[in-house]
Amino acid sequence: MNQYVSDAVATDARTFVFTSEAIENIAPGWRARETCRIIGPDEFVEVFELAAPGRNAEVYSEARLHRSRER
After folding, report:
1. What would the pLDDT profile of 35-68 be if each residue is shown by its tens digit?
2. Which residue has the higher pLDDT, 58 or 11?
3. What's the 3-state SS for the chain?
């Protein structure tokens, strides 16, 4: 489980960045960052990054999510 704090909201209020305060089950010093960018009313992009101690963050996963339309 990760515990995050909000870093920033873009001026357009469509991008949200969260940085880990605490991460369970990983060596001390690691950091995680979660970025959510709203593309439209039915779509957003989520980027998850990890940084080893003393290293820059690297993208671990990126997902583009679309709202499912019921028929």
Report:
1. 999 999 999 999 999 999 999 999 999 999 999 8
2. 58
3. CEEEEEEEECCCCCEEEEEEEEECCCCCCCEEEEEEEEEECCEEEEEEEEECCCCCCEEEEEEEEECCCCC
Residue 12 identity (one-letter amino acid): D
**Lookup: tokens for 65:** 């999510």
User: Closest Cα partner for 17 from 57, 54, 53, 47?
Assistant: 47
> Amino acid letter at 68?
S
Residue with tokens 């989520």: 46
- The pLDDT value recorded for residue 70 is 72
Residues of the chain with pLDDT > 90, as a percent, come to 59
CA distance 33 to 4: 8
User: Residue 57 carries which side chain, given as an amino acid letter?
Assistant: A
